[in-house]
Amino acid sequence: MADENIEDQNPDAVDTGENTPDTDGAPKPPWERDGEEFSPEKAWSLIQHLREDNTRLKASNESNSAKLREIEDAKLSEQEKLQRDLEEAKARLAEADMAKAWAEARAAHPQLSEDDLELIGGGSPDEIKAKAAKLAARIAAQATASENPTNPALRAKPTGGIDPTVEHSKDWLRDRLTNQ
Predict the structure, then answer these.
(1) Positive or negative, the Cα torsion across 73, 75, 78, 84?
(2) Model pTM?
(3) Which of 4 and 73 is assigned the larger pLDDT?
């Protein structure tokens, strides 16, 4: 019922030609349909009326949801009402606990940003803190690696070769045989 179009509900509705395509197949703008020139004053007036209608519909929606809640309450027993209220309170408490855990994790690890909450996801407060600590450690390791790049030759710890600071003799074979 919520998916029904307003035009379908009103049998007296007349096709205004809003969806009639022009020769190119694209819908025409409203000011070209009736053959009249575009008027900024008329467009502004239309926008203002649409905003007023939107505000009225939001207020109506809120009052209708309150009425629906009252009707549902009338159908439920007292025990069911208390159970529903308890579940809603638990859900709000879980959200508050998650927000508190995230705030504590951000305080403990300042390199984390608000966008990192999406990476960490939900869970219990302990899980959030543990995931935040892991992510902060990775961010810190990545930051130090990018700030202090190591020489690949030193990282491989090469062995052998000649030390350029030491004087070597030209006859390496004779040196090797005499040092045994």
Answers:
(1) negative
(2) 0.38
(3) 73
